Amino acid sequence: MRRLKEVSALLSVTADSIAQRLCQLAEQRLGPPPVPYAFVVVGSHGRKELGFVSDQDNALVISDDFRADSHSDYFAQLGNVLCEELNQTGQMYCPGEMMASNPRCRLTYFAMARDTTRLDYCTGA
Questions:
Q1: Sign of the alpha-carbon torsion through 64, 66, 67, 72
Q2: What pLDDT is attached to residue 53?
Q3: 91 phi and psi, to 5 degrees?
Q4: pLDDT tens digit string along 104-113?
Q5: Neighbours of 9 (CB within 10 A)
Q6: Where are the domains of the chain?
Q7: In what order do the strands lie in the sheet with 37-41?
Q8: Beta carbons of 124 and 102 less than 8 angstroms apart
Q9: Which parts of the chain are beta strand (E)?
Q10: Three-state SS at 60
Q11: Quick one: which of 105, 103, 102 has its CA closest to 122?
Q12: At 12, is the secondary structure helix, strand, or coil?
């Protein structure tokens, strides 16, 4: 059992590095983000329990300075690019669509703090 936990932790740390690099590459491709954001992993990845067949569970938490009329397109593209690239690295799409490519999983910090139902949807709680 200890070895399994070590492997899961190693897979999770590796996936963290991959996600971080994919964020950098996506920003190079799309340009700098209009407001700050965090790409947040939840589920087995967030718990550091990734396995070889784990799916993606992630979200974008965006600055409260977010303005839908001028920033939505950027973050929709970012979410789509990140999830597609993660899929190409072997992290399969979430069957429940709990991913940053889903508009329900792109939310401001204030909305995340206020609307736990929406956060629960994104975290699978």
A1: negative
A2: 84
A3: -90, 100
A4: 999 999 888 7
A5: 13
A6: 2-123
A7: 37-41, 58-62, 106-108
A8: no
A9: 37-41, 58-62, 106-108
A10: strand
A11: 105
A12: helix
